[in-house]
Amino acid sequence: MNLETIKNLIRDVPDFPKPGIIFKDITPLLQNPEAFSFVTREFVREYQDKNIDVIVGIESRGFLFGSVLAHALGKPMAIVRKKGKLPHVTVSFTYQLEYGEDTIEMHEDAVPKGAKVLVVDDLLATGGTCEATAKLIEKMGGEVSAMAFVIELDFLKGRERLQSYPIFSLLHY
Ligand code: AMP
DSSP assignment of 22-61, as one string? Predict the structure, then answer.
């Protein structure tokens, strides 16, 4: 198993969810146990010696990679969701999209004050989702120590937008 094999398990779906977007579908990777565990091991290697208190997964594919990593590292797992999905008392953050705005939420007890947080998602594109997640975590008193992605779309320059945070991505396009 190597990164080239992992890349071959990411399926390009043109024009989804709208014309002009090439959707990077990670489900073939999930269907291959060796590949999924290779990705988890690479993340573990990156973070096992770092000072992390909580892992935060971004809805919804960030939950998949975040939770296996939390399990492997023996760390608490927390989730960020779109407004209205979480049942308990929430803290929210509203951010601007190209057209309109969006709101994300976490449970008020998901990130203890001063906690060092690792944010996980499947893919970094423009960085808007992750930037909003970081702001929400900071609003709760947490500290975003790192961000991890399986895939980074380099040409969208999300890394520049998130330049104040250390970023690790396994695959680059
Ligand atoms: P962004 O906020 O632009 O960095 O977008 C990141 C979020 O949108 C992540 O949760 C991704 O799962 C999703 N996303 C954006 N672009 C793509 C793409 N080309 N293929 C798959 N998922 C994408």
Answer: EEEE-HHHHT-HHHHHHHHHHHHHHHTTS--SEEEEETTH
